[in-house]
Amino acid sequence: xxxxxxxxxxxxxxxxxxxxxxxxxxxxxxxxxxxxxxxxxxxxxxxxxxxxxxxxxxxxxxxxxxxxxxxxxxxxxxxxxxxxxxxxxxxxxxxxxxxxxxxxxxxxxxxxxxxxxxxxxxxxxxxxxxxxxxxxxxxxxxxxxxxxxxxxxxxxxxx
Length: 159
What we know:
Function: Forms part of the ribosomal stalk, playing a central role in the interaction of the ribosome with GTP-bound translation factors.
Family: Belongs to the universal ribosomal protein uL10 family.
GO molecular function, one term: large ribosomal subunit rRNA binding
Radius of gyration: 22 Å
CATH topology of the largest domain: Alpha-Beta Plaits
GO cellular component, one term: ribonucleoprotein complex
Structural class: alpha+beta
């Protein structure tokens, strides 16, 4: 059993994580092996995402009044993944979830100061990265110009 001072320290730690993060993801990690969790932590750390495992009762206390709406149902073993970037924490958890089927489930999270469900967090996770979006825009801008150049070239060949 944890001492009251240790519980208060854990709640303050969780509150600090909630306060300093742009988005936070609630993760159910039931069935995750220690070796897989080590891989998860290192891959998240490489992307600037922090990961904490905590007790649900302490997490619920830390979440009180921190965001608008209703806290999503937190079943099973719960951890939080959070980062200063709004999209990286759900994306990295989702990427790990794709490679390790059935070990992680996104339960919901906090985004833009509101509690959101797992479907919303999955939508955020599947948004392409900034570089991919920029390359798509460049391709869309280049395509009509390229077609025009080909058409002008064909007309010049006929004359």
